[in-house]
Specification:
Helices cover 64% and strands 16% of the residues. By secondary structure, the protein is of the alpha+beta class. Strands 1-2-3 form a three-stranded mixed sheet.
Length: 160
């Protein structure tokens, strides 16, 4: 309990020092930087004791949780699949936006990705589907995407 009292006292003292420092900061171009530094100081004063306590808490949790490795791998695979899914969405949005810049409307974008042993995601191919009316623009769209994004792109029209 004395640790919490000490932590509270340090936070109060830091708040007083921060208020004094903000009062001494001259108005003008350095005011924003001064407020940033004072805010970072107060934040560090509040967070540092928590970081010192975290290893102790973590050690207690590891001994209490004997079957944690199965949960860790399941969590890791879930996070990896979510990262892969969001990466595919992001690349698809980027391709759609780039094509709209040159006034080509794409019907569908599919991104083929892999994850290697290091956890790095690599984009193998991007497959863009255009409407039949935009079939004539398929080659120029593929060249544009290759030039602008550096991605291996296959552009097909709805009819084939």
């Amino acid at each position: 309990m004395s640790g919490i009292q000490q932590w509270t006292a340090v936070i109060c003292l830091a708040a007083l020092v921060a208020a004094l420092a903000q009062g001494l900061i001259p108005a003008g171009s350095m005011e924003r930087m001064g407020k940033f530094v004072v805010g970072a100081f107060v934040l560090c004063v509040m967070i540092v004791p928590v970081f010192k306590a975290v290893p102790k808490i973590g050690a207690g949790l590891e001994s209490a949780n004997s079957g944690g490795q199965g949960q860790d791998t399941r969590l890791e695979s879930t996070v990896n699949s979510q990262v892969m899914e969001e990466s595919q969405k992001s690349v698809a949005n980027l391709v759609t936006a780039e094509l709209s810049r040159i006034r080509i409307k794409c019907k569908n974008v599919r991104v083929v990705m892999d994850t290697n042993r290091d956890g790095r995601i690599s984009i193998n191919k991007v497959i863009v589907t255009l409407d039949k009316k935009d079939a004539a623009d398929a080659e120029s769209a593929a060249e544009y995407l290759k030039k602008e994004l550096g991605l291996k792109t296959e552009v097909v029209s709805d009819g084939g």
